[in-house]
Design brief:
The complex is a heterodimer of chains A (224) and B (169). Chain A contains ten helices and no strands. With 224 residues, chain A is mostly helical. Chain A has one domain: Arc Repressor Mutant, subunit A, CATH 1.10.10.10. The longest helix of chain A has 23 residues. Chain B is mostly helical and 169 residues long. Chain B folds into two domains: 54 residues, no CATH class; 67 residues, no CATH class. Chain B has seven helices and no strands. The mean pLDDT of chain B is 83.
Amino acid sequence: MGGHLVSPAVSDKVIPMPVTELSDAALMELTREGDRAAFEEIVARYRQPVLNLAWRTVKDGTEAEDLAQNVFVQAYRAADRYRPTAKFSTWLFTIARNLCLNEIRRRGRHPAESMDAKAESDDGEYLRQFEDRKAAGPDVESERSELYSKIDEAIRDLPESQRTALLLCREGDQSYEDIAAVMNVSVSAVKSLIFRGRDALKKRLKPYLKTGEWTVVQSSGTED
Amino acid sequence: MTQPDFEQLLEIRRLREMRLEERRRLESWLDSHPEDRVRWEEEDLLSLALEDLPDAEVPTNFTARVWDGIESVPENKGRRFAPAVWMEGIRLLLPKLAWAGAVAVLAAYLWHRESVREMAETAESLVPVVEVAQLPSVAVLRDFDAIRSLGEPMVGGDLELLAVLEDLK
């Protein structure tokens, strides 16, 4: 639990706030002081988006897990250097992107270790997990699975910068400014990367996106 | 609403779900500009597809494995930075250092250029003076000492003359 951070309403009584209610910056401050629970809360908040980014970058389940874990290891080691003036998610995703780039470069140097074949099998496993998670009619699921598979394939084939911009966009809570900070480019460059990435996806996925049944499924699932 | 407003709504949709008010503005625009509807639908469908992509499955022991990673190297227990982390920090700082260096070089160049310009201006301003105040040739200076002595008061000579006059008395 957070040591000295207290609820503003009861600050005179010094009642520690639960870590789940603390801001990222406050959690990092506690982490610096050695509070394990605070860092575990950070991990709980960000493991999913970080793992998503890693998985869609390296396309290998095991490597993505290792990479995502390494992101948090690095974040912990560098906790002293984190300044609350920067948005924590931006800082963390910067670490994640750098490690992803390192992995891509490593694979470029050692093409024999490419996980393409494994990734295909992972795709199957991955989609089966999703099918288990979202029970629906077999036809709809089959169509969905095909679409997800095609989208993942199309995303994988994008240039790294376009792919990262799109994936950060998808992880929510990231503004164009945040993405620009992560990628160390201008906001207009981010908009351009996203536009071009989406344009490539639209061209490639046009037949799938236009499928009437899928549209109906999506609309019913995301109606306001 | 104008065309740039519509483009802005498309940008918003690329980033997140639209709010009710934004959706209303969009519908209003599309009613009066049906030619934009196809473009909007493509953007919306792609956004839905991306948003609906399944998440990667997080292993149940993820956090424990993170701690293993942190504690696997003894010096990391006190969160002392490993060289790799320092290198990473330096690498992250490199673009900023490069910018600072470029600014410093530019400033030095401008300062140097300004100094050269000032010196050139000074030299240029001295040219008329040099032309007016031409120095005599070296030959003229050959008898400089003799000529200079002509202008000096003959103190010694006067004293000798005075002594001779005294003697004559």
